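user: Here is a favour to ask of a fellow structure person. I have my own habits and do not want them to colour yours. Could you put it straight underneath, so I can go through it closely?

assistant:
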Amino acid sequence: MMPKLKSSHGCLRLAHGWRLINRPDVPEDIIRNFIRPAARSVPYALAARLKSCRISLPTLLKDPALASQWVRTKDGLEIEVASEGIDGHDLAMELLLCLGQALWEGALPDERKAYLKLLRAEIEAGVPGEIDQESLREKRSLFSCRASARSRSRLEQYARSSFAATVAEYVHCLWHDVTVRTGSEHLPALWLRRRLELLARWLPPDRGHRLFSSGP
């Protein structure tokens, strides 16, 4: 039998001093094999921006249409990820997506400017696809008509979604080897690499973690 995970006042300790609310209905192997490794892969530079992080894995959220939600407090982030019917890997990715959303909200003006510049270069090059389905929907919505394509608010909405997905994928690559998916709905490897390298300049990987398995 596997040993019980250490807890303190109903919480489990994660990397960066983060806390996971202890829920007996969440299998320990999901926490051990997915939540903990994903949190450990978050670069210190990223975690420092978000401060403390308190994570809970309820069966469902109050709004059952949501897979996750978060709120920023004076101490850091409060994150909830629905755990019913989702495997451990997808659960961890949803957590990383929340981190990416929060990071976009706190991004420096020059960082937002650089990311928007990269998105515009992708758009001008006619780059298809995106990292995840939500970002793909936002991208398609942006180009659904001329008015949308010229809308600054639509671009910002797409940028927020794609940035969050990019952050999640960045940490995902630091966690374990990732196979780049191909096809018209997916972001081509060259452009994905450009996004990841941009994040690596701002938030370098910690010792023991590599963004790419081999050199450029």
In short: Confidence is low (pLDDT under 50) at residues 1-8. Residues 9-105 form a domain with the Zincin-like fold (CATH 3.30.2010).
